[in-house]
Design brief:
The chain is of the alpha+beta class. The protein has two helices and three strands; from the N terminus they run H-E-E-E-H. It has a three-stranded antiparallel beta sheet, covered by helices on one side. The longest helix has 35 residues, at 79-113.
């Protein structure tokens, strides 16, 4: 077997990569609902005129914004919906990170398990030693 730069045998490294990919795939399968976008909590300040000027606030109100067909869509939510939607958004970020890692591991695995094009030797120009 060939040894790689890290001292591991090629087949051992491939097996490690496959194992890591399988673990990440299992984490993906265990993920709950996923949504893109963000949740914003809004509080509306309002001046109340009753003798002394004081400020009254309304809210909090929750808004979920996301992109659809290149347009921003805004949906008003209840507090309970905001919690559920927030978890789904968090799950989406986790899924994106897992996929990013899986893509990198897959690239490494494909490079490890196949033979690439041999690099050509560089020609030296006659005037340079």
């Amino acid at each position: 077997m060939q040894e790689g730069k890290d001292g591991m045998r090629k087949s051992d490294r491939e097996e490690d990569l496959r194992r890591e990919l399988q673990e990440l795939a299992s984490r993906l399968a265990a993920t709950g609902p996923i949504l893109q976008g963000s949740i914003t909590e809004r509080v509306i300040p309002r001046q109340v005129r009753t003798g002394k000027a004081r400020e009254n606030t309304y809210g909090p109100y929750y808004q979920w914004t996301y992109k659809s067909a290149g347009k921003t869509v805004t949906v008003n939510l209840t507090a309970n919906q905001a919690k559920l939607f927030g978890e789904a958004i968090k799950n989406n970020r986790t899924v994106e990170n897992i996929l990013r890692t899986m893509r990198e591991l897959s690239r490494q695995l494909c490079e490890q398990s196949t033979t690439g094009v041999k690099k050509r030797t560089r020609r030296r120009s006659p005037d340079k030693p």
